[in-house]
Design brief:
alpha/beta, four-stranded parallel beta sheet, binds zinc ion
């Protein structure tokens, strides 16, 4: 396999879940835990959403992703070009909170990027999405 065609893996997990993982780690929340040095990827930060029904929440997330898509794509492209094959995207939500129904944008963002890769052929390499710390159910 040529280097340009090697798959890029995107892992969505918690800060806790990212401990010990390989790859470039970034934060999808504006504030990351103390002593955590993951830079925040501002174009993936979803504004705080309260008291909205799920359809409207999904609409807001999709609007943010649509607006920022070029930046998101260029970032993933650049990381891949640097030879990094795993990008770990972290947020605060814990497995327990997600199991209790807390909203987590990881599922919407993961599906959005997967569609861009598979349906719209936005990348020249395959993109694999993986969910950790309870995000598999999103
Ligand atoms: Zn989350």
């Amino acid at each position: 396999m040529s280097k340009q065609m090697e798959p890029m893996k995107l892992v969505f997990t918690s800060y806790r879940g990212s401990i010990g993982m390989d790859g470039l780690k970034v934060s999808m929340d504006r504030h990351s835990p103390k002593l955590c040095s993951h830079p925040t990827l501002n174009y993936l930060v979803i504004p705080t959403i309260r008291n909205l029904n799920p359809a409207n929440v999904e609409r807001i997330c999709t609007a943010v992703l649509d607006n920022n898509w070029n930046l998101i794509r260029d970032f993933i492209d650049e990381v891949h070009e640097l030879g990094i094959r795993q990008l770990v995207l972290c947020c605060w939500c814990t497995k327990e909170q997600i199991a209790q129904g807390r909203f987590c944008s990881a599922g919407i963002i993961g599906r959005y990027i997967q569609d861009k890769a598979d349906r719209d052929k936005e990348f020249e390499f395959p993109v694999e999405i993986e969910y950790g710390d309870g995000r598999e159910v999103l």
